[in-house]
Write the structure tokens for this entry.
Amino acid sequence: GDSVTQMEGPVTLSEEAFLTINCTYTATGYPSLFWYVQYPGEGLQLLLKATKADDKGSNKGFEATYRKETTSFHLEKGSVQVSDSAVYFCALSGRQGKSTFGDGTTLTVKP
Amino acid sequence: DAGVTQSPTHLIKTRGQQVTLRCSPKSGHDTVSWYQQALGQGPQFIFQYYEEEERQRGNFPDRFSGHQFPNYSSELNVNALLLGDSALYLCASSPGQGTLTDTQYFGPGTRLTVL
């Protein structure tokens, strides 16, 4: 079946550091790929998505590119802020919208 | 727009009991999916409802059942509760028949504790 593997955390960075959270997937067909974020005390919300190979999703300074050849969708941000501290989930949506999530990566950004 | 709402917020049950969780989708959304999120893990897909029918199901036993009403709201029922059913249960809604490109909007979840 479908699966998502993401970088284990927790990840701790200083403000303005570069962020990469790795995500790889296994799926049949051509899934859509998503990054969701969960801020402390809040629900899951979409951060960005890409629906076909070579698409780049972007939002709030975060980017991820759908790489079919490496089955990856790594999340990057050039300069993180304290307000980016959250749990980040990589996910895919396969046939008929069945979704599979990774286990999440906790990011803490220190001033 | 109220977004996705879930009730109750918290629930405590004992082993063997039955529980019903409720979800109202975001306005204009016709597809509802349910997830179980254990502590420290990602959400696990339980099932998805569209047009009052279960369209997709994850690897959960048939103790987990659901229903979707004509107004698109949904219920998740769990029978014969086990300690391992303790988790955060998330409801997500999406438009357009829940196709694979659709963004899902999540509710805040119901925290179920089984003693």
